[in-house]
Structures are given as C-alpha cells and as structure tokens.
Amino acid sequence: MQKQHITTHVIGYPRLGAGRELKWATEKFWRQEISASALQEVGRKLRRRHWQEQQDAGLDFVTVNDFSFYDTTLDTALMFGIVPKRFGASDADRGLSDYFSFARGAEGREPLAMTKWFDTNYHYLVPEIDDDLKFTLHPEKILGELEEAISAGYRAKPTLLGPVSLLSLSRASDPKHGDPLQHLEQLLPLYGELLEQLSAAGAEWIQLEEPVLADDLSAAQHAAIVRTYMKLGQHKGGSRLLLASYYGSVRGKLNTLFTLPIDGVHLDITEQPEDAVTAARYLPDDKILSLGLVQGREIWAAKLAELREIGEEVLEHIDAERLWLASSCSLQHMPHTLEHESELPSPLRPWLAFAKEKLVELRHLSQALAGSADEAVFAANEEIHRRRALTPGVEVGSLRESYQALDRDEHKRRLPFPQRIPRQQQLLQLPEFPTTTIGSFPQTQEVRSQRAAFRRRKLTAEQYRVFVKDQIRNCIRKQEDIGLDVLVHGEFERNDMVEYFAEGLKGVASSQFGWVQSYGTRCVKPPIIWGDIERPKAITVPWISYAQSLTNRPVKGMLTGPITILQWSFVRDDLPREQVAKQIACAIRAEVLDLERAGTAIIQVDEPALREGLPLRQNEQAAYLSWAADAFKISTSAVAPETQIHTHMCYSEFEDIFQTIIDLDADVISIETTRNRLKLLETFRNHGYPNQIGPGIWDIHSPWVPSVESMTSLLTKATGIIPRENLWVNPDCGLKTRQWKESEASLRNLVVAAEQLRACTTLS
C-alpha cells in the first residue's frame, strides 16, 4: 500500500483535568477562596495541556470550545443571548458568578432545569427561551479560545452545538408558547455571523455538532436541518464545515446530509460498522468523511485489526485525503488517562483505554491505513483480546445457570398494591404526608478524609467502623430532632452510590482515578464490569441494622438498582447488556432479602438511570424497557407484602417510559419536581399512576434554603394533582453534596410544611 496521510481528530476531550483540577478550583471559587481571574487561569492551563496531549499523540487538529466551566450547552445558549427574564437583562456578557447562577440559582432566582444528555450519564442545563426573546451574539468565549490555540501554535478546529440541536434541547419558558424550534429563523443569522467571525479569526475547519441526527427526527427537525445548512453553507467564509453526528447511526439520513452545502460529515459507526462503507460508496467528491471508529463512550481497548479492516474497505471507495479518523463522540464520557492506575486487577489494565489512550489508538489506525502500521502493536492487541476471553471470572458457568433458572413468577410481587398498602400502613403507622429524605446526608470533609485514610491504611478497619458508626448515630439523632418520619442511615460509608456496591461484587473492578463529569463539578468514578457478577456476602445489612437499633422510627434500607448500576458503570462489551443487568439484579435481590430478614421494613432501590438507558430510536425502546423493568422486579419482587419498596428517579424526561414506571410496581416513587414546579406530577396524574409518590419540594442542587412558604405552596399544589393519601414529602435528591447547616434548615422547613398540610386536613 502506498504511504499516504489520514487526518485524525477527536470530537471533544475531557475538560476537568486528570486530577480534577477544574472541579477543585471551581469549588474554591464558589467558597470565595480564589478569585475569578485565578479560576480563569486554571481553565487556560487545562486547555493548553489538553491541546498538547492531542498534538503529542499525533492528531492533526486540536478541538477548541469543548472546554466549559460548567456545561457547553449553557455556554452555547449564552453565546446567543438565551437568558430567561428572571436572570435580569438579556445581556449574556456576564462574570463567572453570574454564569454559575444559571446552574446553581441565586437569591430569588431559580436555576435552569437540568436533565440527562441523550442516553448518557451527563446532565446538561436546559436552555429556556422566552417567547419574546431577541437573540444576540456573544462570541467572546469561542473566539478567545480559538485565538488562544492558534497563538500557541496549534492547528485548531473550533466546535459548536448546532442550531437545530440547541433548539431541540431547549424548552419554552411558557409551554403555551410552543416548540422552541419555531425560533430557528431568528437564530440562523447569528450562527452565520459567528461562522464568518471564526473564519476571519483563522479557523480552517469548523465543527457543528448535531447529535439529534442520531435520534428519530420529526418532520420539523428534518426540514430544519436542511434549511439550516443550506443557509449556513453560505456563511462559512474561507472555512470548511464539518457536520458531526454521534451516539448512533444516522441511518436513513445520509442522502440528506450528502446533499447539503457542507464540506464534511462525521459519523459514529461504532453501533453499525457497515455504515462506514455505505457512506464511503455514496460520498460526494467534494466532501470528506470523518469516521468515528474509536469508541468515545467505552473504555475497552479497541480491536485494532477489526477497525483497520473497516478503514481499508472504506479506502476502496474514497481517497485517503477524504478520510478522517476520529472518536465516535466527545471523549468527555470517559476518564482522562490510565497512566496513574496502579491498583487495577493485573489482567484488567491491558484491556482498557481511557481518553488519552484513545488518542494513541487513533494514531496507530491512521498509520496503518496510511501504509506504515506498527505490526507489533497490532499483534499485541490481538493477543490481549484472546487472553481476555480466557481469563477466569469472565464466564462462570454455575452463575449463568442460576440466572437462567429464574422463573417469570419471580418477577412480580405476591399481592397487588391495593392489598399491600393497608398491611404496610398497619405495620409502619405513618402520618399523612410522611416525611423522609432520598438517602444520603452531607459528605463532609471529615468523612472524606477518614475514608481516604482508611483506604491508605492509615486507619484500621475497626477504627473506620467506629468512625462511621459515630456518623450514623449523629445522623439518626439529627433526623429525630428535625422530626422526620422515615429515617436513613446517611450513607457515610459510601464513596458513591454505584461504586460502593461494585466493591462488594465479584466480576467488577474500581479504578483509582477514573473520574468522569456528571454535571458541573459533580464527578463519578464508574465501576468496570469485566466478568460474571456474584455477591459473596451482604453489603449494606450491618450499617442499616445498626441505624435501626438506634431509633424506634423506621429506617430505610438504601440500595442502588440494577439498571442504575449498569448504566453508571463501564459495562463489558462481550455480553449483551440485558444479561449483565439480570446478573446485577440477582445480586441486589439477595441483598433485599437479607435486609428484610434483618427486620428492615422499608427498602429503597434507586433507579435514577432507568430513563437514560432508553435507546434514542423508538423501534429499539420497547425491548429495552421490558428487560429493564424485569431487572428491577427481579431485585424487589421476593419480599413479603408488608415490606414497602421505594424507588427514586430524578432529572429525566419520564413521558416515554411511564408505563414502565407503573410496571415496576414500587410502593412509593420519589421524583425530582422542583425545577419544573411540579409539572412532572401532571404526567403521573394523566397516566393514572396508582401507587404512592414523593414529589421533591427542595432543589438540592441549589445552595439556597427554601422557605416554609415555598414548600407549602408546592405541597398544596401537589394535593390538587395527586390524591393526598398517596403523597410523601421529600427533597428532590440525596444530600451528599450539601452542607449540614443548609440541610438541617431546609429539612426543618420541609417538616413544618408537611405539618401545616396535616393541620389543614384536621381543621377541614
């Protein structure tokens, strides 16, 4: 093969830093420990470091404007003046304090709503469009970062969320004002002006991201894509436009994309590799094809030989100069690097590739397709995958037999809800509007430092156990003093709601530094599911039982559900996800039964990730929802009718999965509703949700303490939507990220609000 060059780039790169430098600096800024200029300097250093990593790996372009201090969707909205009226004038040129108020709220101003980004565990801030909004252009951020990169000597490719996706992901301030997509014609001239400014600033290529292309487009969205890029193709100046889709196949949309006046199309072909050859066969001569060959969401080392074969097939149809290689999507969904991971199980590390290692995979593939492959690298890669399949624990025959032996009768409760609930009420003796929390209480610096000391073996197991028991005792006493009806143990022994359970399971490993951004400064460290799953012993029972021994009030057993453990882990790629989910479900089922045997009367199995696992395309959704519901029911169905099963879901759009929520048959579901002012409750009413529900009346992602009046107002509104005998009172989510002072104050107000509604009932 004649030596040639294959262009490489990534759609985006992790922005927090390998040591989560951005998280720590941002939180210091929030605490007023550093200045805005100091935080800006941290951002500049991280951008420079990440561009250098891309250049050092041999990539042809570095990606610019994928950095954000909180959320790139928010950044894009502000770039076009999308500012709700409650935040004041529509001027988007704001300082960092004002910028963070959109995400965290401010005195008298509710923050923007937050929800899941497509089918990922990333949360974005939902742009809110007033009907009379006048869009204005504020390009300083993207132009400044482009100039920064070019001045430093990098070949920079700015990236930007496209207008159709931006509007599709937005919501109208008043739902009566219709679809935000109706504002497209007002927005397009500003996008055109921005493209011209980027071109004048030296952008050779501009990447416009339209992730909605992987979804089922409505007729309006399809028409909007065509209108948008027919127009923007006239405003690119001397730059060239790369239209990027990701999170799945674009399927029947290729013909439309290839007729647009753009210069290149990026396709995520990890789901449907055959799309690569189809696209190459029909690619117009004036366009380049960017192939998302390397996984941008999964941490498993690529099968380089297979990917090389795909690239070679593509090169049978197009010339090398028209083929680019890339990550399938932004690498922000995975940890930064494996370089510091020294404690992973010995067979596991060679199976993995984090973001920085994905850059190297791109280089090897590019070199191979250009005729200068390092064959030793390819041979070593094949041997790694061969050995992985033979590693003990990857397949455990006895476990698989037990999973398959589950009977369908084990997927449902022994009695229906109307017959269960009187038994539960007789046992629990709870008042009207029972109050509780979602589970976690503040993870203070002391808690984190003691946990770290235990992990570093500076505390013995007994010393750590005594410390955690002290925290639990204090938490129970505070909850009794506040007046909550159903208590929790506080979860002080848990580093994370998923990782904690993963550490108690066989077939699952934890990294040391594999942090991934969930939203803002909130990071998670997803476990790595590499083998068949088994629970060797009880995980939570000792802590829950101890907490219950301290009080006469019921203490909830707190568990993470099988679908959330699945979705918030890096899942093995050699077994269908359905089978992995049911393996996890069997482990949680055993834990549920152990809690019940220990005397726990209420068990909460959280499933906040149920909605985010929903496939983007409708024809794939029913199958997923069926096995996801089965996994939850396997976990919870074996208990006695008197045992009350709770679940919790938050920051998701529930309309598409509502029948599945009913099918879960949890006795009580708690949900996030504060940021949408209980609008979500109307969905529950309209679908006739039959069981009990706890609508969140305190937005725990805002540092502000809600007043009794605001909580009472929300509860009163809730009684007009849901029968009052079905209502619980709780925050939106767990309190792990909050401080004790604000948590106590807010919970006291919550209890008073519930008492006021009970008093109203008594008086009436």
From TrEMBL:
Cofactor names: Zn(2+)
UniProt-annotated binding residues for 5-methyltetrahydropteroyltri-L-glutamate: 20-23, 116, 121, 522-523, 568, 612
Pathway entry: Amino-acid biosynthesis; L-methionine biosynthesis via de novo pathway; L-methionine from L-homocysteine (MetE route): step 1/1
Keyword annotations of the record: Amino-acid biosynthesis, Metal-binding, Methionine biosynthesis, Methyltransferase, Repeat, Transferase, Zinc
Domain Cobalamin-independent methionine synthase MetE N-terminal: 8-315
Gene Ontology MF terms: 5-methyltetrahydropteroyltriglutamate-homocysteine S-methyltransferase activity; zinc ion binding
Positions annotated to bind Zn(2+) 1: 648, 650, 663, 672, 733
EC number(s) stated in the UniProt entry for this protein: 2.1.1.14
Cofactor binding mode and count: Binds 2 Zn(2+) ions per subunit.
Binding site for Zn(2+): 648, 650, 672, 733
UniProt-recorded name of the protein: 5-methyltetrahydropteroyltriglutamate--homocysteine methyltransferase
The species this protein was found in: Oceaniferula flava
Lineage: Bacteria, Pseudomonadati, Verrucomicrobiota, Verrucomicrobiia, Verrucomicrobiales
